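Fig. S4 source data, part A: sequence.
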Amino acid sequence: MRYSLEPAYILHSRPYRESSLLLEALSREHGRVGLVARGARGVKSRWRNMLQPFRPLLLSWSQRGELGTLTGADQVASPPALAGESLFCGLYANELMVRFLQRSDPHPGLFDFYRHLLTQLAAGTTTQRRLRVFEMQLLQSAGFGLQLDHEYGSDRAISADAWYLYKPESGPVRCGRGQGQDAQRVSGSALLALKSGEIEDRHLRELKQLMRQLIRTHLGDKPIASQALFS
């Protein structure tokens, strides 16, 4: 199979053999793909310094097995200027996609959201708000969508004035204000804000705790390396 001029981003790269790179890329129409970029680290390579995260690319490759072979790469726009916290957030988003998404499983909606996320991170505004919404979108794409409409086991709608214990395997269960640990409780107003994407400052701490709990549940004990950058 040959694929030509597919919109894509590099999520991760590492040296491979003497002068090549092993890439994990996110393409709009084919999802996450593993590619070998032969000779990409050579001083005369046409791809030298191009195959970097966050750069909007058009990639071409041939594929016979699990790994494809890169045959073309063109940068179509300037990469967003990420630095400091915005850069760390971008690396965190990339690592999550590598770990959550299966290869060759397309998610064009997530691709478009990721592209928009990079633009917002570069602008330096509402960084943590956009990251929470991205985490929600990614979990949904990976088959772990959040229940944000109704309480678990009933048709009762989430109430902005209520408190909930969010159970990863089921959803939100109403609880008293003093029930459960602070890291496990989340307000109904925060859940509704996450669903709408209109997150306020007062919601940030509890939603960060919620998303960390859910991501840890689905990924297991292996730490997320990019989280150490925030320290």
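Fig. S4 source data, part B ends here. The two ends are 44 Å apart (CA to CA).
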